[in-house]
UniProtKB/TrEMBL annotation:
<dbReference type="GO" id="GO:0004326">
    <property type="term" value="F:tetrahydrofolylpolyglutamate synthase activity"/>
</dbReference>
<protein>
    <recommendedName>
        <fullName>tetrahydrofolate synthase</fullName>
        <ecNumber>6.3.2.17</ecNumber>
    </recommendedName>
</protein>
<keyword id="KW-0436">Ligase</keyword>
<dbReference type="InterPro" id="IPR001645">
    <property type="entry name" value="Folylpolyglutamate_synth"/>
</dbReference>
<dbReference type="GO" id="GO:0046872">
    <property type="term" value="F:metal ion binding"/>
</dbReference>
<dbReference type="InterPro" id="IPR013221">
    <property type="entry name" value="Mur_ligase_cen"/>
</dbReference>
<dbReference type="GO" id="GO:0046654">
    <property type="term" value="P:tetrahydrofolate biosynthetic process"/>
</dbReference>
<keyword id="KW-0460">Magnesium</keyword>
<dbReference type="GO" id="GO:0005524">
    <property type="term" value="F:ATP binding"/>
</dbReference>
<feature type="domain" description="Mur ligase central">
    <location>
        <begin position="51"/>
        <end position="273"/>
    </location>
</feature>
<dbReference type="GO" id="GO:0005737">
    <property type="term" value="C:cytoplasm"/>
</dbReference>
<keyword id="KW-0547">Nucleotide-binding</keyword>
<comment type="similarity">
    <text>Belongs to the folylpolyglutamate synthase family.</text>
</comment>
<dbReference type="Pfam" id="PF08245">
    <property type="entry name" value="Mur_ligase_M"/>
</dbReference>
<dbReference type="InterPro" id="IPR036615">
    <property type="entry name" value="Mur_ligase_C_dom_sf"/>
</dbReference>
<dbReference type="InterPro" id="IPR018109">
    <property type="entry name" value="Folylpolyglutamate_synth_CS"/>
</dbReference>
<keyword id="KW-0067">ATP-binding</keyword>
Length: 447
């Protein structure tokens, strides 16, 4: 489905948006009531890999899916938010091959049935969409379901799963402070809410020791078999290969297809999570999964498309939806690695929504970027004004200019670099909503 095709499912969801809140209202009461009306489909799922975290949860979800599919297993996947089409949130597994995004008629039917079961009661759209996840995954057989948390953990609508095969907590940093708290240990406590007594837990790489301590303490209190990155498993690059290590020994693997050194730890967490969930996948499947993994909108290079015509000839254009200070640091590290390999002047095109902390994000790019161009975010009502965002970039020490669109920003970069001998590198990011706008405008939506 393209961004311009009429979607029956999208029409049904738009009806819900007119009736129910689009934002978050963290509680499990409404989703529990709705699931009961549907016959509790969340109790009829295949083994569940439940993933939370501030950053990296989408990447570890993609790695888990790629490894399990390479092993011949059918894998359901729930992620949020979507970039272009609502269907991206629901990938249904296919035995012996890659899963596919849910078809429009199947999704539209599921949305209608869930809305009917809700009976007009107060609920958020995210809770309805989560109930759709459980309904779809219960009605279509698969070997495993990977379910990504929407926000937080403890009171997220996905957290009705009583006995996950494994709970995975990826890196935690400041984000959604209004909902989760203004210190990383408070946010860690909310994310740790997906842990269930006696069920395996995998803790990914944590920059903040205080967050790591909270996660470990919670897992120990609940009697969970626990695996901690840097303690029970780890990964590093050696001679152009990824070396994964745990108590079973070393595995010599290809570097992940997803760019950036931060993906080494994400890949390691996925390998450990798959094993902790009880799937004895062969090393050949891990190799195939790392080499073939896909995750749209996260350090994705735009190869052609309508927008590329506005930019400088030969420019290297990347998009990434990372939107908080922690994400800014790993993206900046990736850009620095690209610079070491292939020196080019770097320009940023950034749009953000008003729940984020822009200055911390921008500071990660000091001494890396020539200039920042700020743009509006059309895919969200909460988009920051480009003038205000440019002021934030300036406060972080960067030269910044506000523009009206990504196309205009690319055109200005083309003018600035017209006589430069080396075409520039451009990063478009700061919001998954912006990345979705870019993919839609470029004519290259995820599939």
């Amino acid at each position: 489905m393209t961004a311009t095709e009429v979607s029956e499912a999208a029409q049904e969801i738009e009806k819900l948006l007119a009736l129910h809140p689009k934002g978050f209202d963290l509680s499990l009461d409404r989703i529990t009531r709705l699931l009961a009306a549907l016959g509790n489909p969340h109790e009829r799922l295949p083994p569940v890999i439940h993933v939370a975290g501030t950053n990296g949860k989408g990447s570890v979800t993609a790695f888990c899916r790629a490894i399990l599919e390479a092993a011949g297993l059918s894998v359901h996947v729930h992620t949020s938010p979507h970039l272009v089409n609502w269907h991206e949130r629901y990938r249904l597994g296919v035995k012996g091959g890659k899963g596919a995004l849910v078809s429009d008629p199947v999704l539209a039917d599921a949305v209608r049935r869930v809305a009917e079961a809700n009976g007009g009661e107060k609920i958020t759209v995210f809770e309805i969409l989560t109930a759709v996840t459980f309904l779809l995954f219960a009605e279509h057989p698969a070997d495993v379901a990977i379910i990504e948390v929407g926000l937080g953990g403890r009171y997220d609508a996905t957290n009705v799963i009583a006995r996950p095969a494994v709970s995975v907590i990826m890196p935690i940093s400041l984000d959604h402070q209004a909902y989760l708290g203004d210190r990383v240990e408070l946010i860690a406590a909310e994310k740790a809410g997906i842990m269930k007594r006696g069920c395996p837990v995998v803790i990914g790489h944590q920059e903040e020791e205080s967050a790591r301590d909270v996660l470990i303490a919670t897992a120990e209190r609940l009697g969970c078999p626990i695996s901690v990155y840097g303690q029970d498993f780890m990964a590093h690059e050696e001679f152009g290969r990824l070396i994964f290590q745990d108590e079973n020994g070393l595995a010599d693997l290809p570097l992940p297809r997803l760019p950036g050194r931060h993906q080494y730890a994400n890949a390691a967490a996925a390998i450990r999570a798959v094993r902790a969930a009880g799937f004895d996948v062969p090393e050949a499947a891990i190799e195939k999964g790392l080499a073939g993994v896909e995750w749209p909108g996260r350090l994705q290079r735009l190869a052609g498309g309508r927008l590329s015509h506005f930019g400088p000839p030969g420019a290297e254009i990347w998009i990434d939806g990372g939107h908080n200070p922690g994400a800014g640091h790993v993206i900046a590290e990736a850009m620095a690695t690209f610079e070491e390999r292939d020196p080019r002047p770097l320009f940023l095109i950034i749009g953000m929504i008003n729940t984020k902390e822009p200055i911390g994000y921008f500071k990660a790019f000091l001494d890396l970027t020539e200039q920042v161009f700020t743009v509006p975010v059309h895919g969200s009502d909460a988009g920051l004004d480009p003038l205000a965002l440019a002021a934030d970039a300036a406060a972080a020490g960067l030269e910044a200019n506000a523009t009206s669109s990504v196309a205009e920003a690319l055109g200005q970069i083309a003018e600035l670099t017209d006589e430069d001998p080396v075409p520039p590198r451009v990063l478009i990011g700061g919001s998954l909503y912006l990345v979705g706008d870019v993919l839609a405008e470029n004519g290259t939506p995820p599939r």
